[in-house]
Amino acid sequence: MITALIVDDEPFARRDLCRALEPARDIQILGECGNAIDALTRIHVDKPDVVFLDIQMPQITGIEMIGMLDPETMPHIVFLTAYDEYAVRAFEKNAFDYMLKPVTSDRLELTLERLRNSFFKHDFSVLPEVNHLRQIPCYGLHSVVFVQATDVEFVEARTTGIYVSDLDGHEHPTALRLNILQQRTQLLRCHRQYLVNVDLVHKLQYLESGLAEFVTRRGRVIPISRRLLPEIKERLGIS
C-alpha cells in the first residue's frame, strides 16, 4: 500500500484529485492539507510515501516547503501545477514527477505506475529556493507567524518541541527540525539542543569547568557543548 498526502490551497483541486485516486486500490490517502505549514506537521507525523504538492501556494510555495523537509526522510514529491512551461523548465530533472492541472486519468495512471515500479530519493539541492530559508514559519494563536531568519536570536529543542526566540524575546513553536534549520539558515549549532545567531552574540565566556557559553546582546545565556567548542572557535577565528 502506497500512502499519500495531498497538499493544495484549492479545495476543489484537492477534491478532484481525491476522486481521481479512488479507483487505485493500492493508494491510501492519509489526508489533505490546504497549506505548507499543516503539510509539514502531517509529513513528520504520518510519514507518507508520496506527497502530491501544489507548486503555487500563498506564503510558502511547494518548492520552499521541500527545503523545510529532512532530506533523509523525504517522501516522493509529485508536483501539481497549472503552468506547463514553468513545470517543464524548472522541475523536469528534479521532481519524481509532475502533473498539470486539471489532472487527467491517463496522466495520473502514468504517475502511479512510476510510483509502483520504483521508489528512490531525489536531490533538490540544485533548486536555489531550497538551499536557504529567509523566514521560518512558526505557529501563533490561530495563525502562522513568519520570523525572519536574521531576526532569530536562538532556537531551542525541548521535550515539547522546537522553539524559535526572536529579537524581541518572543518564543514561537515551529514544525521545522533543528537539523533543517542548521542546514537551511546561518544559525550555528552550539549544543545538541541549541542553534544560535552569532550576529546577535555579545560574548563567548569560558567557565571554570572547561566549558563555555554564549551571551546574546539581550543577555540570554546559550550553552556550548564541549565537543563543538573547538569547531566553533575555529569558525569564529578564536585561537
UniProtKB/TrEMBL annotation:
Record carries keyword DNA-binding: yes
Domain of life where this protein originates: Bacteria
Chain ranges of the Response regulatory domain: 3-116
Domain named HTH LytTR-type: residues: 136-238
GO MF term (any one): phosphorelay response regulator activity
GO biological process, one term: regulation of DNA-templated transcription
Keywords assigned: DNA-binding, Phosphoprotein
Pfam families according to UniProt: LytTR (PF04397), Response_reg (PF00072)
Gene Ontology CC: one annotated term: cytosol
Keyword Phosphoprotein included in the entry's annotation: yes
Modified-residue entries (4-aspartylphosphate), positions: 54
Gene3D superfamilies noted in UniProt: 3.40.50.2300, LytTr DNA-binding domain (2.40.50.1020)
PANTHER family named among the record's database cross-references: REGULATOR OF RPOS, TRANSCRIPTIONAL REGULATORY PROTEIN BTSR
Protein name as it appears in the record: LytTR family two component transcriptional regulator
